[in-house]
Each structure stands twice: as structure tokens, then as C-alpha cells.
Batch of 3 targets.
Target 1
Amino acid sequence: MTTALTAPTAPTLTIAPTPTRRWTPSRVLVTRSAAERPYGQRVLARLEAAGVSDIELLRGDRLPSLRGDGDRAAFMAAKQTLALVVPPASLRRLQPIAPSADWRFDLAQGCPAHCQYCYLAGSLSGPPITRVYADLDEALAGLDGYVGHGTVTSGSAARAAEGTTFEASCYTDPLALEHLTGGLATAITHFGTHDWAGPVQLRATTKFDDVAGLLDLPHRGRTRLRFSLNAGPVAQRFEGATSPVAGRIAALGAVAAAGYPVGLTIAPIMPVDDWREHYGRLLDDVAAALPAATDLTVECITHRFTPGSKETLLDWYPRTRLEMDEAQRTTKRGKFGAVKHVYPKATMGELRGWFTAAIAERLPDARLLYWT
């Protein structure tokens, strides 16, 4: 069996920054099947150790309806609720997730943060409860058959060195939940110690900074931790209940010092007033935080929205100042007719040109994976 993509084991003296935010759910719902799983039992123990008192063990596998005195009340109740469940079997038949990774590998669904541009808004059905999947042990054991069969990275000449990639943060922020679940550490350890049939990489993106429990894991360079960062005015206005950008940058530096390959996800990029100055300062701060010879990738994602996500976001955050004016956008249609509102071509060209040059200047060793 190959052992490619095996960087030296993480140093043990890396100092983790003090976490700036930890989420504690007001209510936890546990389905019967989830409580029977070994990983589900480990999560329950962590929840109790974290001081969560309202834990309800359900008699079956159906979650109760979360009702409030209106849509807003139901939304707030859902955002404060964690459910420990076993997902349907169909979820473990992995799907490609371009342009990020070969395969989407879900640890959970939902997020406790309050980002007013939330890209999950048009994807989740029903109240946005954070669902943690209790079948993690079985799910990890089922990944071997996907190695070498992707098309996004392992089947691409430009990104083949990344190996077969598994994206763990498509529908959640795993670091936001890590102190309650230990799921990300479990996955990182599995990827680092398992005997794979080819080179592999676990990928995760976060807006949080509680990385202390990850620094000494035997990751062997097979997990790329990426930090979603934005210009100060965007983060301060639209990224509620997340760790401050400065905390995320410190966490990025800590995991890089621990030997992890790391990533910078600049998203969603917005041409706010003085955007060049603000994003330039962000790139300078990232450059200053990273050790020499850091394995760094960059992903650039501009702000976009769909008719469905706009409707949901305005329900969730009725006072938002987020720009979602179709008249200021260009409409794109997917191959199945899906509508997406993006910045006009001239704006996109200006943004892309500046970011490409600025990244090359400030982070010369970084690899820009894609722009969208």
C-alpha cells in the first residue's frame, strides 16, 4: 500500500491560541439509533462533560417538530438545537463536490454560526437544526472504495498531487462542533493512520479557531485545514457568532506550525468600499502568521445568491444590509436551469485581476486552486 502525502508527524510543542468562541446548544435531541452507535455514545459523553443539561433521548428515529411563535422563533430555536442522528444510507453514497474535492464526506449538517450570506440557506430543508451524524465509524470504514476514482483532484493533471480528496465541510463547520463531538479529530486520525490504497486528503473549512485538540494528532499531512477569512468590514457586519478573523488567522498559523497543509478560503468576496485596502490587509496578516515553507492553497469565492437563498436569508435576517439586488447582478444558469445571481463581468474581472496579483505578491508560494 502507498504512503504518499505523508508529511512529518506534527510537532508536539505548537502552542494553540486561546479559543475565542465555543457554542453550547440549548437543547440536544438524540435518536434511538444514534444512541446505539459507539460514536454516538462518545458524543453523548462529550456533551455531558461540556455541561449540556437538556439532552432528550428519543424513543424512535424521527425528530420532533420545532415550533415557535412564528418563523423567526422557530429559526432561533433550531439554531440553538443539536440533533444526534443516523443519516439515511443514501448520504453515504458519496457525490463529487467540484471545484473543491473528489468526494463530499459529511460529518454533520448545519452550523451554529449566523452568517447573513449563509450558503446553506438555499440547501437545507426545514428548520436549520445542526445534525451530527452518529455513524462516523462506519462511514470512515467505507471510504476505501472511493480512493483513486475521483475526477476533481485525483483525475486532474493540475491537482493530482492532492490525491483522492474528501471534503468534510460542505454542509457544516466541523470545527464549530469539535469540542462537542470530537468528530474532526477522529477523521483526521483515521486519515493519518489508515493504510490507504493510494494518496488521500481530508479537507475541512472553518470560521472558528478552537484548534488545540488537533495540533498533536498523527495527521501525516493527509488533512488540509482551511480557514474561511474575509475583509474586516464584511466579517464584522455579516459573520455573526463566528470567531474573529484575527483568531482564525492565529489558528491558521498554529496548525501550519503543527505540520498540517493549510488553506485560505477567501469567501465570499465582496467589492465593499475600499475593498483593495481591506483585502490587502487581510493577505498581509495571513502572510505574517504563517511559518516559512508552509504548504498553502488559496480558494477565492465571490458572493452570489439564488432566488431561494435570498428568500430564506431575508426570513432569517430581515434587517440584513447584505446586497442582494438582482438589478446589480448578472444571472447565470446551470446545466439543469438553476438560477444564480453573480457580479457583472466587469466587476468579476476587476476582482479576479486584483486578487490574482495580490496573492502572488503577498503569498508567493501559495497555490491558487480556483476562482469562482
Note: The radius of gyration is 20 Å.
Target 2
Amino acid sequence: MKSIQMVDLRTQYDCIKSEVDHAIQQVLSSTAFINGPDVKQFAEELAHYTGANHVIPCANGTDALQIAMMALDFEPGAEVIVPAFTYVATVEVISLLGLRPRFVDVLSDTFELDPESLEKVVNPKVVGIVPVHLFGQCSNMEFILNFAQKYDLKVIEDTAQAIGAVYTFSDGRKSQAGTMGAVGTTSFFPSKNLGCYGDGGAMFTNDSELAEKLRIIANHGQRKKYYHESIGVNSRLDTLQAAILRIKLKHLDKYSASRNEVADRYDQAFLDHPNIKTPKRAANSTHVFHQYTVQVEGYAREELKNYLQEKGVPTMVYYPVPLHLQQAYVQYGNQEGDFPVAESLCKKVLSLPIHTEMEKDQQDYIIETIKSFFRQ
């Protein structure tokens, strides 16, 4: 059996090596390293895949969030609702722009933002909501969009972990993650479901005027070179990464199906297990399983994590500390006990290896090793 990886990028690359190598060589031969043809072509292909009217590539997922908030004209001092249980980038850009995060709790089974908590924090200063489609499935977007419309709030979807997931509305309409709010954002970090071989990101919108604004801000605030209409940033997807992403986009549905096969086997293996709580799949969203995250019940998670490491099974904790208790963000006045679900999850969650090339014998070993821990 091969050694087990959390994400086996090497084996994935080996499977598409000839396609990727050819794409890279084409860029090297053209020497169009910045804003080459592949960047525009990738944006068009990703727009076609997601159904978004506009895709604006940028340098990374954090930039995508920042540029989105800049384009929506959020003023310093305004407040943005964000879940307490997510990666730091989501709240980082809020603080960097002089905005104030309004944390809310999450659901204990799907890990998504708790819609019922929104009424508790809405106030005249709140201008937006950032639902994070955590671990690979969509938040309850129908509720969130209706709530946002009621209070005239902008919705920025953080789709860094859920590209390719599909949300179904109560009337039967289907939309891809990232295409439902005012702006959707994503990351192409190598370990993502659609990942490049460096940094990369993109923004989605169906609003043509907003799309142009996003493009201008991402390009130093200029529409025409050396003529700067607004304060902007330098954030672009380089041509090599775009060329790689064009290849990997063709395989994205296959990758999602492979991840679901691995998740199905985990689900079955730990069905009714007293110490392993498997992740719930939301009824109105498909799941692309960027992570397969369980909750460890009745035992100290670190004991299981260390045991698995000793047996050659890597695991990760996403995330060990909720955002409102991180040293950088305690300034906003929250304290322990404010968001009990997020705080509890940080003590229990454990993400197991899941990737597109996982072999059955590897997964069987992972499952048996976990079960053996609880039989000791």
C-alpha cells in the first residue's frame, strides 16, 4: 500500500501529466506570462461551467473577498456578518478594510452558517453577509438571500471549498455555489477541488456593471493603462496557472464524483458508530467534499489524531480555534461562550484523508485503524 496523503497531488498530476505539461509548454513558448490568452479563456470556460455571467480571475481567494467588498462600496465602520467557524481569510479582509465582523454561530451537523442566528445580529450598521460554503456544500442560500433582501444587505459567497456544488431552491431552480449572491469568490490553492500549482482565485457575478468594477479594482483601479479611476490593487491570475486550471476544469466533475465515492464509504463504515459523528449532507445542496470532517465523541480528539499519526494516517483539524477567540479578533468584544456550537466543533472536528485518487486499500486501512483505536 502506498503511503497515505491528505491530498495526493502527485498522483493526480501523474494522471493528467501529458495534458498539463503540454499546456505549460504552450505558455512557455508564447512567453505571455501575464494576462496571456489562457486567462481570458479560462474565465470564459469557468463562467460556462458555473453559469455565472462573469468570472473575474485574481491572484488568490483572499484577494477575491477583499476586492468584492471594495467593489460593493462597504464603508469603514460598517459591519459584515460572518460565521465564527471558518478559515481566517473570511474575517481578515473585513478587518483590513476597516469594517467590523459580526460573528454568528454555525449548525452542528452541516457546519454551515446558522440562518436562525441572523436576526440576532442585524442592525443598521450591517451591510453584508458572507456565507461560507464550508467543506464542500452550500449554506441555506434561499433563507440567506431572502433575509438579505429584507434588510437590503449584499451577499458575498465564500466558495473556496465548494466549487461545483449545486444548490436547489424550493421552486426547483438550481444554481452553482458562488453564483447566487452579489459576488461569489473562490480560491485555486493547490489542495482545492479545482486547484492550480501555485496561488489563484476568482470572483463570480451576474451583474455586468459590478463585474467591470471588480476588474478595474483588481487592475490597479484602471480600465485604461495609466488612467486610474479608483483605488485598486494588483491581483491577477498568471497565465501558467490559468493554463493548468483549464485542464483541471475538464476533470472537475470526475474529481467531485471520486470524492463522493470516498465519502460514501466513510459514511457506511461509521454508520451508527458511537464515537464518530459523520458530516450531514444538506438536503438542498450537492456536496463536493473538499474535506470529510467527522466529530469525535466521548474521547479526546487529540488522542485519536496522535494514534492515527503513529499508524501512518494523516489528519487535519479545521479549525482548532473559532475566529471570535483568535487573538487578532478578540478586539471585537466577543468572549468564550458566545458561539457554543463553533466552540464545541473546534474541540471535536477531525478531517480524514480524502482526494481524487484514493485507493480502496488505503481507505480500508484508515477505517480499520480508526475503529481499532476505540477497541483498545
Note: The longest strand covers residues 54-58.
Target 3
Amino acid sequence: MSAVIGAGVASLLGQTFSGQAAGAYGQRTTVRAVDAGGTAGATSTSAAGQDRGGATALSLSAEARAYLATMASSADATQSAAAREKATAARGWFDAQYARLGIGSALVNGQTAVDFSKQDRATLAVVAAGTAELFSADERQAAGAALQARFDAALMPHAVIARHTGDYAGLYAAAADYLGEAGAEERATTTFTLQSKAVAEGLAAARAVFGRAPATGNANDPVRALLDRTAATPATKPPAGASAATVASAARTMLDAQAARARDAGTELVFDATRQSGQKADFGPFENRTLAAIVQNVGDAFSPEEVRAARAELGQRTRTGLLDAFNKSDGDPMSRNAALLGQYLSMSGEERAVLGFGQDYADGILANHRLLSSLQGLLGGGDGASLLSYI
């Protein structure tokens, strides 16, 4: 026997209806509400009272309906009291944290500044919902982010499985299970109601189409939000001077995000430009040093096709840069040397190693530059005597 917390019993009893509910061991029981003129306490157990399909018909009197409505109202009041109790305790906890940490908000520079790790899920839910109007906007936002992080942590393994198997229905089913574990306080929030409805719709859509994530178009769908976040290109890039391992890790994350987007769309990420199917890899957001880390296969983190594609992209960028340097020189050898040397100096050590631009390349440019400068000194004129003055 199971009970559903938060079911709208009172709303169901306020109208005449005829429906079927699952009884013990799957037996169906048909419950019919009757008006005040019905027989009080009447219960049909005779053959005539058997509904079609073998279900037992029960008629509820006005008194019975009133009793159930009272029970539902009492349950709602108990849940509200529990939520207020959680909210009051959370208010005291925030105030104690601020006093201990010497801060005045749950967010500092946009980042959560309090530790929610020891707060239970129900507490986070009542804070995020602004229960009893006890919490600031920052506190609600911080609690909501912590609640979302717990959802993400629980669902991420299922998201990985879905992307590799195409079984997105399993992901939505896991989300439904997670929401089903919510306590009465969380179930009473608007967020829970909206998310539960969105997940149910997403589950139905995922079961209808295998192999890709359903495009629910529902802003309250926490599963779709998780998929979109984990498939987004990272907003930050490795800082200047970051280690090769850090750069390679960033490159791996960027490629994985593109692969995730492709799988969610029901296709795959491809690196061969001649292929007619699949989602083509986009190296536009990748810096040259990041491409070089892929070519060097730092940490053995990249496949042969990823290495080949990155090498081709980096080579194309270098050829374009060299051609641009020649074009900007307007035929002036000195300007061309300066442009070529500038391009060399702008390269990271990884780029130079991958492209074969060693110190001898720079030395050759400098030697050529010195020779041209010397010839200009001999042929050019100026304050001192030059070769031209003798011609």
C-alpha cells in the first residue's frame, strides 16, 4: 500500500465523480461520491454493486466526504507548520553564519559564501521558495543553486549513460525518482510542482522517440536544463601561463561539450569535413595553444581523428597568418621580416613545436633583417657617406 503526499483530496471531494483507484494487489475499487441526499455510510457489497471488470463500488456519504476533507486540510496544515519550522530554523542558521563569517549576505561577488553541505534538502527547498518571507533574494538564489547542484550530482551519471546509449527515457525516469524522494516541505513548493509536471511530460516524450533528448521547450524541465548546461562551451579559457595539462583539460572539456550537444540532437560529432552526416566539430572557440595541446595529445586525452583535425586547423591558421604578413608588407622586405618575427613571437612554445618553428627560424629572420639593414645603410644615404654618394 502506498500513499501520495500532497494529493489534492479536498479538491477531488468537492465534485461528483466516478473513478477507479488501485487497491491492494492491484484490485480496482470504484469510488462514487454522492450528494447529501444519498444513503449515509452506504457501501455496496452485493453482486449488483460490482462495477464492470470486477471492481468493487463504494459510495461515500456527505459525512464521509466531509471527514476526508477535514483530514486533508489537517494534513496541509501539518505540512505548512513543518515548512515554517524549517524556515525559522534556517533563518537562525543564516544569521549565525553571517555573524561567524563577518558577512552580510549569502552571496559575495556573485558566489555562494555559506556552506550548505550540512543542510538537508527540505531546508534548501523552503529557503529557495521564500517560505514565510523570511529570506532575502540572495539567500533564495544561493539555496536554489545548492538544491540544483544536488539534483545535477544525482542525475549526471544517468545523463552520461543516456548520451552513450540513446536512452533518454531512463534519464527522465531517474529524475522522476529523485523528485519522488522529496519530503512534504519540498512538495508544497511551486518549483516542485512545475518540475514534476515537466519531468512527466519529458519522460513521455523520451519514450516516444529513442536516441535523442526530447525538445520539451519547457523552461521548468530540470533535465533539459542539466543537458544544456553540460553541453555548453565553457565561458572561461585557460589563463595565460597555464600548464600544458590545464590547457589540454580545457580542450577536452570543449570537445566533450560539442560531442554532448551532438548526442542530445540524435547524431554524433565528426571531424572529417567530407562526411555528409553528423555534426562537424567547430574549432572556432579554440585558441592556437589549445589546438597545439590536442596535436601533442597531452595526457593521451585525444583520439587520432581529433589530433589530425586539430593539426589541420592549426596549420591552416598558420598559413593564413603568414600570407597576411606578406600582404601587409606591401613588398617591403623590412616590413615583411618584422611581421614574420611578430607572428613567431606571438606563438606559444607548444605551437612552435607542433609547427616546426624552432629558434633557427627566428635566427634566420633576424639575420636577414640585419643584412637588409646593412644594405640600406650602404645604399640609403643619411647624415654619413653612403655607397650612393660615390656613384
Note: The mean pLDDT is 78.
